[in-house]
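Hello forum,

I keep getting stuck at the same step: I have a sequence, I want structure tokens, and every attempt I make locally crashes halfway through. Rather than fight my setup again tonight, could one of you with a working pipeline run this one for me? It's a single chain of 195 residues.
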Amino acid sequence: MQDNFLFDGTIAENIAFARPHASRAEIEAVARVAHCDDFVKEFEAGYDTVVGERGVKLSGGQRQRVGICRALIQNPELLLVDEPTASLDPKTSRQIMRLIKELCSERKLSAIINIHDVMLAQMFAERIVGLRQGEIVYDGPPDKLTPAVLTSIYGEEDWSATIRKVDEEAPDDEAGNVVPFDTPRLDRDRMAGLT
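Reply #2:
Ran it on my machine without issues. Output:
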């Protein structure tokens, strides 16, 4: 999803790209699940709105949600998500990560998320796997990340400001209310963040 490619077609066509014979009911059902339905209804043509070359008529968050719909319409057992928050503002980044986590919980999906934003990984992943030159250098819970671990993953840098302390900022819900880090609690094997 790093650069979620949308073609110059309708929202419905972009969602159904992986399943071109999906019914309108199936398209709209995954759109509701992925929180697309609200913004789609704002367009005069709804699901028949042409999004423009590379989806230029949609915001970054809307494009990501259409990409999530495209994945969900395939009824996957595993979500492979590449940089879902790249080029998004902090609020939309949280919303997208929250959505992915909720969808995995509700649909009993496993997810492997490639994300380089350490703070977001700590906020939303149950398990973080850090790679360096193709080798696993860290595999554990987000609260065990240390500056030394980040140095082993990314190289020498002052990582002290990057690490989320246990009592620091918790994710917030759509209304801005703080949500405990373990709500909803996901099985460690169901949600993995790769940094």
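The mean pLDDT is 79. If your local run keeps crashing, start a new thread with the error log.
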